[in-house]
Amino acid sequence: MRGSVWGAFLLVAGLAVGCAGAPPPAPPVGEGSLTAPPPAVSTPTPTPTLPSGLTRADVEAGLLSRDVPQGGTGALVPVPGAVPAPGPGRVRTVRVEVEEGVPVDGARFAGFVLAVLNDPRSWGAGDTMSFARTDSADAEIRLILATPDTSRRMCRPLETYGRLSCRTGDRVVLTHYRWVNATEEYASDPTAYRQYVVNHEVGHALGHGHQRCPGAGRPAPVMQQQTLGLDGCAPNGWPYP
C-alpha cells in the first residue's frame, strides 16, 4: 500500500516538473498570425508641380512657359519620330516643326496636333481620312510653330503682323503668339482655340476656303476667320462638331 502511494506521488511530481520546464508551444505556421502586423502606411503620390503661370491644358499643348519671344533663330526643327495613322481612309502625312528657341515641348505639341487631326470631329470624320506623323522631308503637310517675326515672314505676301496664322504652299504656319494667348472670345478655353487653329489652317492645306458666320448664336464654321472675330457666332473648333 505504501509503495502504491509513493509511486503515485512520484508520478504527480514528475508531471508538474515536466509542465513547468516545457518550452512554450511554437506559433502556428501558415497564413494566420497570433499577432496582427501594424497596418501599412500609404504614401500619397505627389502631384506634379505645374510651371508658373501654366495650366495643365497649356502643358498638354506643349507650352513650357507663357513667354512669347518676338523672334527666334529661324531654324525649324522637325519633331523626331513617326506615328502611324490610327484609322482607315486616305492617309495624309504631316511633319511637325518647331522654331528653335520657342519655349515649347516639341513632342507634346506634336501629340496635341495629331490628336486634334485624328479626332472624329475633325477632317477625317466618318473614317474618310487619317493623319500620320513623320519626320521625313516628303510629308504632304508641314505644320510649323514659329515666333511672331518668323511666322510673319513665312506668311508673306499675306500680312499677319505675327498675330495670325496662315497656310502657304504645303506649309501650315502657326504663330506662337496665338498658341499662348488665343483670342478674347476663346480666353476662357484656349484649348478650344488651339483645336480651331489647327483644323482651320490644315483645312486650307486640304483645299477648303473661308466661310462666314451663318447666323447669330450658331456654331461658327471652322473655316470662318474666327481669330478676327466671331460675328455673332458661337466658338467652334471642329469641321464636324
From TrEMBL:
Ranges for domain DUF3152: 68-231
GO MF annotations, alphabetized: metallopeptidase activity
The keyword Mitochondrion is annotated on this UniProt entry: no
Keyword Signal tagged: yes
Top-level lineage group: Bacteria
Keywords: Signal
Region (Disordered): 28-50
Pfam families: DUF3152
Protein name (database record): DUF3152 domain-containing protein
Signal peptide: 1-22
Annotated Pro residues bias: 36-49
Cited InterPro entries: DUF3152, MetalloPept_cat_dom_sf
